[in-house]
Amino acid sequence: MKIEIKKDILASNASVAAQNRERLRRHSVCMVNMMASPGAGKTSAIVKAIEGVAGLRMAVIEGDIASEIDSVLIEAMGVTALQINTGGSCHLTATMITSALNYLDLGSLDLIIIENVGNLVCPAEFDLGETARVMIASVAEGHDKPYKYPLMFREVDAILVNKVDLLPLCDFDLAHFHQAVAGLNPAAAVLELSCRDGLGADRWCDWLRSATAQVAG
Ligand SMILES: Nc1nc2c(ncn2[C@@H]2O[C@H](COP(=O)(O)OP(=O)(O)O)[C@@H](O)[C@H]2O)c(=O)[nH]1
Ligand SMILES: [Mg+2]
């Protein structure tokens, strides 16, 4: 007899995710799940968001296999940051997010940004109850990634193409990348960004403001 373990895990995760989503809806809080490979610029993009969306009451949930490096950095900016160490697991689950939400006063927040564990595979399969999903693809990773990780590129509402300051140093064909993304997910917003020099940070912050405003109604 074949046991459907993966199906069961995903079904039970989806049910907890639905509870998280309902809880956030009751408090009109937008929650954005940020996914990317390690080093693509998730923390850097969150830093740009904190600098650029003054006025929104924000908290951050940091997912990492180990360490508190990212949450310490965010806390130093004066923003509440909850660190989840998965201890080896390559993605966050809806239950982990429920635990984090228990530590937050949702009535005093407009926006929660989740930094998922650095991985282009598993996070795309685990609904956390988020309002919106964002992935970051950095130009240093190569323009072929949409073909290699199609689920991640299909499942998101926005794609940040980060580290465009490195374009002169990388064999990254932007037109090729845009074409691949358009074939997989024509509805996604694709925003070019350099967290290093700030190029595109205003559009990223506008996107976050608009996602938050939609939830606030
Ligand atoms: N050149 C360049 N480096 C960047 C940019 N964004 C992030 N980095 C660097 O890339 C490395 C990983 O960034 P980080 O935000 O920690 O990535 P994360 O692992 O996805 O959270 C750090 O050394 C950052 O300074 C960028 O736009 N341009
Ligand atoms: Mg990080």
Write the layout of secondary structure elements.
Elements lengths: L4 H22 L3 E7 L5 H11 L5 E7 L4 H7 L4 E6 L8 H8 L9 E5 L16 E7 L6 H4 L1 H5 L3 E5 L11 H11 L4 E4 L8 H16 L1
Parallel strand pairs: 1-4, 1-5, 2-3, 2-4, 5-6, 6-7
Helix pairs in contact: 1-4, 2-8
This protein binds guanosine-5'-diphosphate and magnesium ion (MG).
Summarize this structure as a short list of keywords or feature phrases.
19% strand, Rossmann fold, alpha/beta, binds guanosine-5'-diphosphate, seven-stranded parallel beta sheet, 217 residues
Provide the CATH architecture. 3-Layer(aba) Sandwich
Number of strands: 7
CATH superfamily: P-loop containing nucleotide triphosphate hydrolases
Classify the helix fraction into a percent range. 25-40%
The helix/strand class is alpha/beta
First CA to last CA: what distance? 49 Å
Question: What is the overall number of helices?
Answer: 8
CA radius of gyration is: 17 Å
